[in-house]
Design a protein that fits this description.
By secondary structure, this protein is α+β, with helices and mostly antiparallel strands. The chain is built from 1 helix and 12 strands.
Length: 240
């Protein structure tokens, strides 16, 4: 008798669950959406706080364009990219933050590269890179500090010009280092692959300013020497 009552109760409960199953599923979905929205909102607010903190520490006076403006025009500055590494000290984890500057009127787009302490987010040093297009590569060095390879492309009156620099941060100063023992001038196009190979392509213009390209050579980043070397003289895995 008791077993029969139990079966009847279970059957009745099953009918009720079946009747209201859609409502239960909808309630669970609403709860999940609410929790997900709350988490996303908190994450978004945290990111905005960090972005504002990084931006507020930039020294406008050290940038030729920003120094001519009144502070309060932060809307022309956006974070383009963030790299992690040890740039000024092998004992401190740091952030290399790239800010894109997009002037409203006049001026030209350029980039500010700034080093921050990763733990405190306090700024250490910054450098303005005056070019339309900027590419940054973080290269390891045997001394425990990362080097910064800067490649730029600026177009003036329809003619592109290219520049390449290798920076080391010492005492919060951006010091240039020899990229290679090769004579690398700015009459080239540069491409980096696998963050270790530097491809050099010569560019020339005819009388009609039509460009022609000629591959020259490929160099390999040697973290022991702290510069790019001939790939044939290295222990590069690409030679295997």
């Amino acid at each position: 008798m008791k077993k029969s009552k139990f079966l009847v109760s279970m059957f009745t409960l099953l009918i009720l669950l079946t009747k209201y199953i859609n409502h239960i599923i909808m309630l669970i979905m609403v709860i999940c959406v609410f929790l997900n929205f709350s988490a996303c909102k908190a994450e978004e607010e945290n990111y905005e706080y960090i972005e504002d903190l990084l931006l507020s520490q930039l020294d406008w006076k050290s940038d030729d364009y920003l120094s001519s403006l009144e502070e309060g025009q932060e809307d022309i500055i956006t974070i383009k990219n963030i790299h992690y590494g040890n740039f000024s000290s092998m004992d401190k984890d740091e952030l290399l933050v790239l800010f894109h500057i997009a002037p409203h009127l006049g001026g030209r787009d350029h980039t500010i590269a700034a080093i921050y302490d990763r733990a405190t987010l306090n700024i250490k040093t910054q450098k303005s890179l005056y070019s339309d297009r900027v590419s940054i590569y973080v290269l390891p060095y045997i001394n425990g500090r990362d080097n910064i390879l800067y490649i730029s492309n600026t177009v003036y009156q329809g003619v592109p010009s290219y520049r390449i620099e290798l920076y080391q941060i010492q005492d919060n100063e951006w010091l240039t280092s020899p990229i290679s023992d090769y004579d690398i001038d700015n009459n080239n196009v540069y491409a980096v692959t696998d963050n270790t190979l530097l491809h050099i392509i010569e560019i020339n213009y005819d009388e009609y300013m039509s460009a022609s390209y000629k591959y020259k050579y490929t160099l390999y980043w040697d973290s022991n020497a702290g510069k790019f070397i001939d790939i044939s003289d290295s222990s590069s895995p690409y030679l295997e």
